[in-house]
Design goal:
This protein starts with 8 loop residues before the first helix and ends with a helix. The protein contains 17 helices and eleven strands. It is globular and about 70 Å long. α12 crosses α14 and α14 runs antiparallel to α15. The longest helix has 19 residues. It is α/β, with parallel strands linked by helices. The chain folds into two domains: 212 residues, Rossmann fold (3-Layer(aba) Sandwich), CATH 3.40.50.300; 132 residues. β1 and β2 form a beta hairpin. The strands form four sheets. Strands 4-7-10-3-11 form a five-stranded parallel sheet. Strands 1-2 form a two-stranded antiparallel sheet. A two-stranded antiparallel ribbon has the order 5-6.
């Protein structure tokens, strides 16, 4: 398992899940591996009765996670909504890993997602040879989850065509999946539920029907409330990714991460940290996920083409790439920000020069 590029959550955090399970004495809903309290501890971190320390997977409002877990303990499906990069996929994966020990029952929503991806398909060789039968069926991840009493995950729900989205209605309301070709149906086993994600900026792609909206409990994942919270998120994820990728570089100084996060927060909010200067916001989301990518790229540059320590020159190109999505509008906004804010800020002259050189 150690040579995998990216382990599933239940593989990467198997030790923590096992420790939590051994200490968990609370009531567990049908087919859940952990109690709701234990799932909360796994997501938010904490110390167990035996002294074992659980690392936080989500840094933010605890109530958001509690509502999500409570929803999954009912018959309502969960929709995680938020701007890109607010850890919707990350949270859905860890919820599924903690609750069922399996985060792999995943449907990735795109404009080309078909109804077969939600319901079932056919092995056409067997279908032609033997006719319609269970053996000729190809079950979707959602169908597998229904049969096993597990959590299915559906990413980017609003990118799926509207008629395909509505195929979820019967599954979520009746907890059955009709198979008209066989005159049969699949009934969901206790423990089955669905976690869907959608981002605010894609709501206009394919709006959910009112019937489908009623089948979901929507939980909004906000951007980090404070600078320290966002810095903590970036630092933790960069350390985890650096370890997984075996980057031969020193962990970045907290002040270097803080500068990247400051740039992102100021441009995202359209206001400098001291509240004195209004700024124009670029077209990109500038989320914590983008900040993590910028710092991670800087670490890679420092490790392979530098002295092993991340400097401002290593993050400059990543900053420019993250901010300048539109080569005309965003570049003008970025240049103005460099000249009016970065250039004039104490201790930021090196970052100003590096970003100017990277343009």
């Amino acid at each position: 398992m150690t040579n995998l590029l990216r382990q599933h959550a239940e593989q990467q955090y198997a030790t923590e899940l096992d420790e939590i399970s051994q200490q968990d004495r609370r009531q567990r809903p049908p087919n859940w591996k952990l109690s709701p309290w234990a799932v909360r501890t796994y997501l938010l971190g904490g110390q167990l009765d035996n002294g074992f320390v659980v690392t936080p997977k989500y840094i933010g409002q605890a109530r958001v996670i509690e509502i999500s877990i409570a929803t999954l303990a009912t018959d309502r499906a969960l929709l995680l909504l938020g701007v890109p990069g607010t850890a919707k996929t990350w949270v859905s994966e860890h919820l599924a890993a903690a609750i069922t020990g399996d985060s792999t029952l995943l449907v990735q929503g795109t404009a080309g997602t078909s109804e077969e991806s939600i319901r079932y398909g056919w092995n056409y060789a067997r279908l032609l040879a033997d006719g319609p039968s269970r053996a000729a069926m190809v079950a979707s991840p959602i169908m597998h989850a229904m049969q096993a009493g597990k959590i299915a995950r559906l990413e980017e729900l609003t990118r799926i065509p509207a008629d395909v989205m509505d195929s979820l209605i019967t599954i979520l309301s009746e907890k059955t999946l009709p198979i008209p070709e066989l005159g049969e149906e699949v009934q969901a086993v206790q423990g089955f539920n669905l976690i869907a994600t959608a981002n605010d900026r894609d709501r206009g792609v394919n709006e959910l029907s009112s019937a489908l909206k009623r089948r979901f409990n929507t939980v909004v994942l906000p951007v980090p409330a404070s600078m320290d919270e966002e810095v903590n998120i970036v630092q933790q994820r960069v350390a985890s990714l650096g370890k997984a990728l075996q980057l031969p570089a020193e962990a970045p100084a907290i002040e270097e991460i803080r500068r990247v996060v400051t740039v992102f927060r100021e441009l995202r909010e359209g206001l400098t940290a001291d509240g004195k200067t209004k700024l124009k916001s670029p077209s990109g989301s500038l989320s914590p996920a983008e900040a993590i990518s910028v710092v991670n790229q800087g670490l890679s540059l420092a490790a392979h083409f530098g002295d092993g320590r991340m400097h401002c020159q290593d993050v400059a190109s990543g900053l420019v790439g993250a901010v300048v999505k539109d080569p005309v509008q965003d570049q003008a906004i970025w240049r103005e920000y460099l000249e009016t804010v970065v250039k004039e800020r104490d201790g930021w002259k090196d970052l100003y020069r590096a970003c100017r050189d990277a343009l």
